[in-house]
Design goal:
single chain, alpha+beta, 8 helices
Length: about 220
């Protein structure tokens, strides 16, 4: 007996996640994903006085400055559910941040907001300082690893290979530009993320410390 396919029967065809280039319409999704994964990989909603703080430091400057080095996992219906964002030249990004991002950031967030009762290890004052002082990104070793990245996936996408594919996508894009290596910093408490990076071949950089791990990898593969 012939069994009708979903398309033939008029039923909805299942859509599957896939990787694509970032679009300006993804900006709010990127901010949301950043917040939902900012607490050591878990949900940071309500941790700080304004949920946009984490995205304004660790996501939105990247898609503003270099959107062509941002890639998302689309859920199959146009919504981003994961991303990788990067810059090819960290030193140039720091210069841009001081000129173009810091003034608006300080105006939007002049001082810490009211306490939330969550007492995060990375305090709101430290988060504000990170938004105002991009020189924190000028690590030793930029000559060999001038690019850097941030990557976040919602829990339902983790363990399906999208993390590796996103990193490979960014490495390929950087290699096409002649960028030799890229690096990342990470939360030392995110043990599963560290194991993931180790499997991909990231190495610990000389400037790395136990409280602020720095990992690097070549763009060639």
């Amino acid at each position: 007996m012939h069994e009708e396919t979903p398309a033939a029967s008029g039923a909805a065809v299942p859509r599957h996640p896939f990787i694509r280039s970032y679009r300006p319409s993804d900006r709010d999704d990127v901010a949301r994903i950043c917040t939902l994964t900012a607490a050591g990989g878990g949900d940071a909603t309500g941790v700080y006085s304004d949920d946009i703080l984490m995205p304004e430091v660790f996501a939105l400057p990247y898609v503003t400055y270099e959107p062509d080095l941002a890639f998302v996992v689309d859920d199959g219906e146009g919504r981003a559910v994961g991303y990788i964002i990067g810059v090819a030249d960290t030193a140039a990004f720091v210069d841009w941040w001081n000129r173009e991002w810091t003034p608006g950031f300080v105006e939007r967030h002049p001082e810490p907001g009211p306490p939330t009762g969550r007492d995060p290890k990375f305090t709101e004052q430290q988060l504000l300082d990170a938004g105002r002082k991009p020189e924190r990104m000028l690590i030793a070793g930029l000559d060999a690893y001038p690019a850097h990245l941030h990557i976040d996936l919602l829990p339902e996408l983790q363990g399906q290979g999208f993390g590796r594919r996103l990193i490979d996508t960014l490495r390929d894009a950087l290699a096409e530009r002649g960028v030799a290596g890229l690096h990342l910093s990470m939360d030392p408490g995110n043990v599963s993320a560290r194991a993931f990076y180790d499997r991909l071949g990231f190495v610990e950089l000389p400037a790395s410390t136990p409280n602020s791990p720095l990992l690097g990898i070549s763009t060639s593969r």
